[in-house]
Amino acid sequence: MAGIGVNGVDGGRKKATAAMTSASSDDRTIRNRVTVILGAQFGDEGKGKIVDLLCQKAHIVCRCQGGNNAGHTVVVENTSYDFHLLPSGVVNPCCMNIIGNGVVVNLASLFDEIKINEEKGLTGLKDRLIISNRAHLVFEFHQLADKFEEELRGNGKRIGTTMKGIGPTYSCKASRNSLRVADLLDDFDVFSEKYRNLSNYYCQRYLNMKDSVHVDEELKKLKEFRERIKPMVRDTVTYLSDKLCSTSKKVIIVEGANATMLDLDFGTYPMVTSSNCSIGGVFTGLGIPPHSVGDIYGVCKAYTTRVGEGCFPTQMDEKLDNIIREKGHEYGVTTGRARRCGWLDMVMLRYAISINGFTAVTE
Length: 363
Hints:
Elements: H1 2-26, E1 34-39, H2 47-54, E2 60-63, E3 72-76, E4 79-83, E5 96-99, E6 104-105, H3 107-119, E7 129-132, E8 136-137, H4 140-153, H5 166-174, H6 181-185, H7 188-205, H8 215-229, E9 233-234, H9 236-244, E10 252-255, H10 280-286, E11 293-299, E12 303-306, H11 318-327, E13 340-343, H12 346-356, E14 360-362
Parallel strand pairs: 1-10, 1-11, 2-5, 2-10, 5-7, 6-8, 7-9, 11-14
Antiparallel strand pairs: 3-4, 12-13
Helix pairs in contact: 4-5
């Protein structure tokens, strides 16, 4: 027994001590804290404006979840920029911008967005954009599935989805059938086979889809996107870890999309989005440790708005609703839909604070 104690327990302790010494010699100490900006209501609170204010001194701005169903508007020198996939930090020419692994990416929409904003005057976007190799891709059949599923829910049960294919892509990811950016950059013949199989799966699941899916055309586009996206792709987990542990000061901001009350777990389910847009999504969507987060800012308006279906306890009467909507220009950035307007809901705000642990709430 003595021999077991010496060679087993004590030996294990020596190995553990050696491992800890080895880890400390690599010195992965977190020296730079992440500032997180999250919506405290149903979205459209003005998160982009807060990010724009803070990113003037930022080195890195990150998106961690959602897709091009999100919409942030930033106004710089009388020019209005609308961002859906791009982090709002692209307005700062000295800022790197990360689309994290938790984001689902529609490549056609991404390149359209880059083109539109470059035409408005933003330069060097492709040189300042990093896309995670782990991010999952949104395809044509995901968008069609989104449309079919919404129609099948029937009147009174529709979610009010943006039809961008975000929900079906996350569903595909959870069922482990999805394709990631890394797959696209790998052997294209292998990717094409996987894409065809996945397309066939959706066509069998949704019988009305077959005539609307154009596999060869889509693969041709994806092969072109493959070459265009290649310089922007890297392992963002390692990249961010290096920046967090850097001895030089780095200002890192995480820009949340959607908002707490649309969170898949904590929102008004089932009238929610398909990702975690509360604080938990920051960690899983970027691969950063919890203790790397410093301030967590919750953004809210002096009143409440909501796009689409779902409960809204403080919604105003029709007359006042219309007045607030016109005065506040309350129309969705992504869809152009009119937002429903209501009074500030303090019960809901307290609930959002309890989940996210906001260090400050701003409006």
